[in-house]
Amino acid sequence: MPISLAEAQLDLPDNPTLAEKLKGKRPLLLFVGRLAPNKKQEDLVKLLYFVRRLRPNAQLALVGDRWDLKYDLWVEELAADLGLSEAVTLTGKISQQDMVTYYRAADLYVSMSEHEGFGKPFIESMYLGLPILAYDSTSVPYTLADAGVLFRQKEYARLAELVDILTTNKPLRQRIVARQAARVQVFRETAVYHTFLEFLHSLQLIDKLPEPSNARRPDFGK
Q1: Model pTM score
Q2: How many whole angstroms separate alpha carbon 172 and alpha carbon 133?
């Protein structure tokens, strides 16, 4: 079953102070997820190094808990070795409002992760209109389906050129955002509710598919 999109948690106003701070960071690349080796944040730092050859002011925001303290320090050391200390931000844990502000401020969501159980930030990005560029692994192609842009080889110089295109080509961005907006409908609460009922119906656990009520949330325990 897909994760149900918590729309109320994403329909928050921006943090105005943070939004103002992020205005000058262009293009801003974003990844959301705990700092962990399987998430491959270090590959995003390497990508940024090549992107800045084309776009010297490019920035990278890594939003997420410093879950692996040795790994997050290593990522910071890598950024320093590449001369990117001022261009890479590791936020640590932040509020839901700040996370939404980062989504809205970013120019591109980029994932190099090599293991995703589902990829909740993908549906958050799709809902908030942020184009996605992601490494094709584990659950990523299922979550995105025909939305976003997938790649299968981490060729940083070529990916940097693609990042440049995706952050500057407005008609292309609009087409990607439109496709993502269509895909995210699958994860809305009502759609997930019907998918679950259809599954129960296929197992002959229910006789008919009731309509969801706006006044009453479905009780799946009955």
Answers
A1: 0.88
A2: 13
